[in-house]
Design a protein that fits this description.
The complex is a heterodimer. By secondary structure, chain A is an alpha/beta fold. Chain A contains 14 helices and 19 strands. Chain A is 30% helix and 19% strand. In chain A, strands 1, 4, 5, 6, 7, 8 and 9 form a seven-stranded mixed β-sheet that branches. Chain A starts with 21 loop residues before the first helix and ends in a 9-residue tail after the last strand. By secondary structure, chain B is an alpha+beta fold. The chains are: A alpha/beta, B alpha+beta.
């Protein structure tokens, strides 16, 4: 193998649909029909998604080459083939959904320009290409698959207990399709501002500041325990003629399921890993992507691959139960996808071996556990003391944390635990609960500067 | 198929079982940095617990996890009282009281006092 180089963005070019010049932004929005963006809520009224996160991720190029809310043909193409109409691989429907009442009140038609507002301020504009109806339950089920249609990896039908399925299930029945353009760039609040590194900037930092020729991505929605740390360290031994130069931690930030850790603790917990030298900061960097996690295991892994390729990574580590919840998918569904493909999802070969597929290289990793015989954290494919293994379990650790027991440092670094406690004191709770979700939905991760839009 | 519940032992809990037959059942985890008692739970009782607490789940080790703190506390109280690990029926008898306490945990859990 020769020396690897940073792969091109997915689709060839990085999307960047952000207007920085205020005058131009105001003129773009002048006379547009105003619409205040709203959260998607579950039947109990708990916010489970906010489309603003998708608008940010699309416009800053995390989801390149997607440029906005999908047309009906694009949606069908994604659901049937996991491909955009252009042929490029893309896994999830990206949709601006509106209720019947809102659609009626908007009185909008194809060709109109919409001014999308957030927290009462102008945020983005979109030129309406199409308005169409969806059956949210059908979209939800086709997004994640069924045991009958996707027998390779789907083990049980998706239902109300699956948070990703619920996001699509709870969408409104009308979709407004069209390209989004941010006209009022978001100002990230503490602590998000320290970790905000959109793809164009991230590529520059990797290439010219960090000077990493190769870089492996670590997906996270969790505070790191030492099992995660070992996964990062060991997966980074892949590369080309030498181990990867850098590890890019990219946290998924948005609404999460109850019981996960708060976004703030996740970011600062990972930051503690490099700040306190467990992995040198010159080799480890923490960033995030706004996205309300769909917990779609192999489907989610495609999005992760796209995001991190767009950010400039050469490799992506995938563990067991990647981005999974419950037992809807095979525990190794993501690794099956990236090692042999899943034909029923449109992949006769792995996604990095198909036409218009990804260029990022997968690194499928098995498990890490503590071995009392070896006296160290061991890799499952190396350690011969399988009957003695002591597995890292996120839920076991959560139980320990909730009981107020400081985890031993062999399991969780004390500085990581302190990051959890710091935010526990802020929220009065160590994990995501309904109150956290409601506050997050009210405040979001960003603020917007006031902007006056001239009337038409 | 039996499942398990791990009861973590801090210094105070270790003191409460000192000198009892339970001491021999304490398991060392992570090179002795963590002490734990493991309670076996028959399948039907595990299902009863899963039904009582909507976030509870069985993890990849076969352990019941994401149980309310109130449940874990009650479990240890019964263990310390009976000086035995065969207490799951006693805990289930207290289920309504535990569920009531667990509801409050959805809103607030006091943070530990650490630097």
């Amino acid at each position: 193998m020769g020396k690897l180089r940073m792969p091109p963005p997915h689709g060839g070019e990085l999307v960047y649909r952000v207007i920085e010049k205020k005058d131009y932004a105001e003129s773009m929005a002048a006379g547009a029909i105003e619409f205040e963006l709203k959260a998607t809520t579950d039947p109990k009224g708990v916010p489970i998604r906010h489309v603003y996160r998708e608008i940010v991720s699309v416009c800053y190029g995390f989801f390149s080459p997607v440029e906005g809310s999908m047309t009906q043909n694009e949606l069908e193409s994604v659901l049937n083939e996991r491909r955009l109409e252009s042929g490029w691989v893309f896994p999830y429907p990206i949709l601006l959904d509106v209720s019947d009442e809102d659609l009626k009140a908007l009185d909008v038609k194809e060709g109109d320009r919409l001014l999308l507002k957030l927290k009462g301020q102008p945020f983005a504009v979109m030129d309406v290409e199409e308005i169409y109806k969806i059956d949210p339950k059908d979209v939800a089920t086709r997004t994640f698959g069924t045991p009958e249609k996707n027998p390779e990896v789907v083990r049980q039908p998706f239902d109300e207990k699956h948070p990703g399925w619920m996001i699509y299930r709870c969408m409104n029945p009308n979709v407004i399709a069209g390209k989004w353009t941010i006209i009022n760039p978001p100002k990230f609040r503490e602590p998000y501002d320290r970790f905000w590194l959109p793809p164009a900037e991230c590529r520059t930092v990797i290439k010219h500041v960090k000077k990493w020729r190769t870089c492996i991505a670590h997906q996270t929605r969790n505070v790191p325990h030492t099992g995660h740390e070992m996964l990062m360290k060991c997966a980074a031994y892949t590369g080309d003629i030498e181990p990867c130069h850098g590890i890019l931690v990219n946290a998924i930030i948005g609404a999460k399921r109850r019981g996960d850790y708060p976004n703030e603790a996740i970011l600062e917990g990972h930051e503690a890993v490099n700040k306190y030298g467990y992995i040198k900061p010159s080799r480890h960097m923490v960033t995030f992507t706004l996205w309300d996690m769909r917990y779609g295991n192999p489907i989610e892994s495609l999005l992760h691959g796209i995001i991190r390729q767009n950010m400039g990574c050469t490799h992506h580590m995938f563990g067991r139960d990647h981005a999974a919840v419950g037992e809807y998918y095979d525990k190794y569904a993501t690794q099956i996808l990236w090692s042999e493909g899943i034909p029923s999802f449109g992949f006769e070969a792995p996604p990095n071996e198909v036409d218009k597929g990804l260029k990022i290289i997968p690194q499928n990793m098995a498990e890490f556990w503590y071995c009392p015989v070896c006296g160290e954290i061991a890799y499952s494919e190396n350690c011969g003391h399988v009957d003695k293994k002591q597995k890292f379990s996120g839920s076991f650790l959560r139980g320990m944390v909730a009981e107020g027991v400081m985890p031993p440092k062999v399991v969780m670094r004390p500085e990581v635990y302190k990051a959890i406690v710091k935010w526990w004191k802020v929220f009065g709770y160590p994990f995501v609960n309904n109150r956290y979700l409601e506050n997050l939905n009210k405040n979001l991760e960003i603020d917007l500067e006031p902007m006056e839009i001239p009337k038409a | 198929m039996p499942h398990y519940i791990g009861v973590i032992l801090d210094e105070s809990r270790l003191a409460q079982i000192k000198g009892t037959p339970l001491e021999e059942k304490v398991q060392d985890l992570f090179g002795g940095q963590l002490k734990m008692l493991v309670v076996e739970v028959p399948e039907d009782k595990a299902q009863q617990i899963l039904k009582a607490f909507d976030r509870a789940r069985i993890d990849s080790r076969g352990f019941l996890e994401d149980l309310p703190v109130a449940f874990k506390r009650a479990l240890f109280e019964e263990i310390a009282k009976a000086k035995s690990l065969d207490v799951i029926d006693k805990v289930l008898e207290r289920l309504p009281e535990i569920q009531e306490a667990a509801k409050k945990e959805d809103e607030y859990i006091p943070p530990p006092e650490i630097e």
